[in-house]
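Subject: Sanity check before I submit

Could someone independently write out the structure tokens for this chain? I want to compare against mine line by line before I put it in a report. The sequence has 89 residues.
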Amino acid sequence: MTFTLRRTIWADGLPSTDPEDYQVFKDGEALGRIYRSSSTGPAPYWQWLVYGARRGGRAHAGVADSLDEAKVAWLYAFQGSTPKPESHL
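---
Independent answer below. Compare away.
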């Protein structure tokens, strides 16, 4: 199962002003979002969310220290189980 990240495009057709704001797609369907926070805290962090209802009782949103960690957390939440090594974003 392969997912792709594409820069977020809003309903008005304009891209997000943040170049590190992505939607997660599979087969043309947007399934979630991963973006870098513009927080003024000590270090930036990545927020992620799965669109729609919770899957498998897992959280459908969270934060991570890096894009790679956010991708793994998103996939874990989407699948409702531990990601398989061959499954990737």
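---
OP: Matches mine. For the report I'm noting this point. Residues 4-79 form one domain.
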